[in-house]
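Wed. Picked up where I left off yesterday with TetR family transcriptional regulator. The coffee machine is broken again, so keeping this brief.
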Amino acid sequence: MVVYAGQGDPERTLALLWRSAGDGPPRRGPKPALTVDAILEAGIAVADESGLDGLSMRAVGERLGKTAMALYTYVPTKRELIDLMYDHAHKGAIGDLPGGWREAVEAWAVALHERYLRHPWLLQVSHARPVLGPHEQTVLEKLLEALPDVAVRATVSALFSLVRGSARTIAEGRAAASDTGTSDQEWWTARSRLMNDLVPDFAERFPRSVSMPPAEWDQAAHDAFTGGLKLLLDGLAGHIDHQADQTRRRMSPKAR
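Structure written out below (tokens, as returned):
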């Protein structure tokens, strides 16, 4: 299930996204029975358990001991709710980053990766269109602050693709057994037997594939993320050094 941001009323959604801290200044009269933040936290809890497929205004209301109708005073529809939850779930995702650009970018990527794995339903929200909320924007801003000015656009895109893609692979691997009713061991055992019968020369035809050492799936996926991140940062470091060398050459007296 892929959900696109901004499917609700844009004026109401953006007003709620950029509301004051909490739910606004204190008002006279009885204290509200609910708050927007409480609804979002309940919605996040529902989505953490059941994904966005299991999210409904009714399910959120039940978690709060309220009816679905009681929520509509605060959040118009499920469409706005998803945008608000998405932004709220990014709150505090990136803490203080180290000083050096490489250490800062690595810490940023690891922190966002962990946030996605804590709330896998975030990956069901397409990255094609931003929610345009303050917490989502803070995640991007912290990355831009950490990166050198060289090749920022390409690096930002590559980093988000790596972090989201890796987290999605791990999340899908973790959910596969419960979603399909078949464990990884059962799945591979059944197919290995059939492959041996149907393609007896598989090892000869695909020797490099067969020579790859087996690994525990979750750990292998984490290793792929950290290894891919290192390669990306190595490439960026090389590019930065190259650009610095080019600048020095242009500024040297011999080049004039």
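Quick read: The domain at 10-90 is CATH 1.10.10.60 (Arc Repressor Mutant, subunit A).
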